Amino acid sequence: MKKFISVLLIGAMVFAFTACGGDKEPAETDEQGGTTAESGAIDYNSIPDTMESEDGKYQIAFITDVGALKDQSFNEFTWNGVKGYASENGKSYKYYQPANDQAATDADRYDAMKAAADSGAEVIVAAGFLQEKALKQAAEEFPDVHFIFIDGAIEGYDNIASVNYKEEQAGYLAGYAAVMDGFTKLGYSGGGGGANPACIRYGYGYVQGVEAAAAEKDVDVEMRYSWEYGDTFSASPDLTAMLKGWYEAGTEVVFMAGGSMFQSGTEAAAANNGAIIGVDVDQSGQSDTVITSAMKDLAGSTMDAIGAHYDDKWADYGGKVTTLGAADDRVGIPTDTWKLEEWTVDDYNALYEKVKSGEIEISNEEVADPSTLEWEHVNFVK
Fold first, then answer.
1. Range 137-158 average pLDDT
2. 3-state SS record for the chain
3. This prediction's pTM
4. Rg of the Cα trace of the chain?
């Protein structure tokens, strides 16, 4: 089995799946939420975000997605993998944020990649599906550089390795858990305006999990499902107002699948005694409203892909799309921090094994609007 890398949670504890195997003892956590030196796990917060290399060259580079580097979600935990690998292996590292922030263009992203390559990057990690066009251009111009595309898919370029996740599995587990814990009025607020493949998979998997649990309990579930105000993956007054309206109309828990949109979700939930399901990483340490999170191991899988370059195993990743899921111990929900009261960890582990083995099949079709499909137990409302 692959080594499963523990990921530092923001103000909380170490990211780990109870369902994962392995013969290592779990890492201990210190008072700040980092991991102890004795455990051998990585305390990402102890690794500086900036460094000065002796020769002015930076071997491993990270190109951020939209939003802040320290977004406590997608950017930050991919970056953790970059600096984690560099720190453990004595490599220099640097991050680059494309110009113009939320309005960044393909040219801005390419310029960031070129700056990294010109500064000596041997491996460039780019986060987010919006990087595709710039990556292709950079890969052609810098054929000796290896590029790692997190949450995107490019084939046919030997120097590009694409790493995707089975978000539908993580979404399924979160939706199933919510219903098994007694919630019957749920919501989904997605990022990217319905065009982001990862957010689409999260959402469609979520509804599939809700349907499966509702069928098992023989209950009907009310579902609000929207891409509104999520185009930029950012919190906004309009998004907060919409979510407050959902809670006031009876919604009990909302799955926030869109980076910094999470802040609008927690604000609305806190004002209405509601609950939130986090995304990408365990977000329980960021708000008391979080009952669980649909997670993917961004840091660990990023480290694996970088390691393929330095371990002469690039052929395992380069020129193809690697999609990681439960079978690889790379998606799941956190059992150590969840606030579920009626569903047990043993129940979760049993379900996880069925997903892992393929006994439970979860569709990964890109269905941006599940309300267009027929469901026996899920009723979509505005």
1. 97
2. CCCCCCEECCCCCEECCCCCCCCCCCCCECCCCCECHHHCCCCHHHCCCCCCCCCCCCCEEEECCCCCCCCCCHHHHHHHHHHHHHHHHCCCEEEECCCCHHHCCHHHHHHHHHHHHHCCCCEEEEECHHHHHHHHHHHHHCCCCEEEEECCCCCCCCCEEEEEECHHHHHHHHHHHHHHCCCCEEEEEECHHHCCHHHHHHHHHHHHHHHHHHHHHCCCEEEEEECCCCCCCCCCHHHHHHHHHHHHCCCCEEEEECHHHHHHHHHHHHHCCCEEEEEECCCHHHCCCEEEEEEECHHHHHHHHHHHHHCCCHHHCCCCEEEECHHHCCEECCCCCCCCCCCCHHHHHHHHHHHHHCCCCCCCCCCCCHHHCCCCCEEECC
3. 0.86
4. 20
Q: Can you tell me the distance from the alpha carbon of 109 to that of 294, in angstroms, rounded to the nearest whole number? A: 28
Domain definitions of the chain by residue range? 49-166+297-328, 167-296+332-380
Other Cβ atoms within 10 Å of 23 Cβ, number: 5
CA dist 100 to 12, 66, 232, Å? 32, 10, 13
Mean pLDDT of 84-106: 95
Structure confidence by residue, pLDDT tens digits, 32-70: 233 322 334 789 999 999 999 999 999 999 999 988 888
Pairing of strands 275-280, 93-96: unpaired
Q: What is the mean pLDDT of residues 308-325?
A: 97
Residue 36: its pLDDT value, please? 27
From the candidate CATH numbers 2.40.50.1070, 3.30.43.10, 3.40.720.10, 3.40.50.2300, the one assigned to the domain spanning 49-166+297-328:
3.40.50.2300
Length of the chain: 382
Alpha carbon distance 186, 253 (integer Å): 5
CATH number of 167-296+332-380: 3.40.50.2300
